[in-house]
Amino acid sequence: MKIRLFEKQDAEKVAQLFHETVREINIRDYSSNQVEAWAPNNIYFRDWEKICSNRFTYVADDEGVIAGFGELESNGHIDCFYCRKNYQRCGVGSQIYQAIEAKALGLGVSHLITEASITAKPFFQRMGFSIVNEQKVTCRGEIFINYVMEKSLYKAA
């Protein structure tokens, strides 16, 4: 397994991973209407190429299979973070997260923030994030619960 930066040719695989993960994993915590709004069938690979190219997007590459990916914005915001269903709970997410945190430290970011789904909340808690608040967000007419979470990257002396 190699953790590397996103390349433009990864866009289709990343988009498919996102779609499949929301539809097959997040369905445990959200309704079918919610996951259909979150990951609609009309995925545009060019949109993913643009988004992932404008952030520090790390992918877990398992000999050509994208096992997971996570995106860091230069301000410390972690946006998308997904692992393929058969790669969950085996350290892939932790490896991607470690690359993101190392990059954030290199950028001089003092804390990370994310909006974690119900499904992702336990993972981010294991990575040392704390819940700031629960919130309701709307996507394509569906209301979702997620959690604003943050982690300080610098310990007080």
UniProtKB/TrEMBL annotation:
Domain N-acetyltransferase: 1-154
The keyword Acyltransferase belongs to this UniProt entry's keyword annotation: yes
GO molecular function, one term: acyltransferase activity
EC number of this enzyme: 2.3.1.-
Keyword annotations: Acyltransferase, Transferase
Keyword Acyltransferase: yes
Domain of life, source organism: Bacteria
Coiled coil spans: none
Protein name as annotated: GNAT family N-acetyltransferase
Source organism: Candidatus Synechococcus calcipolaris G9
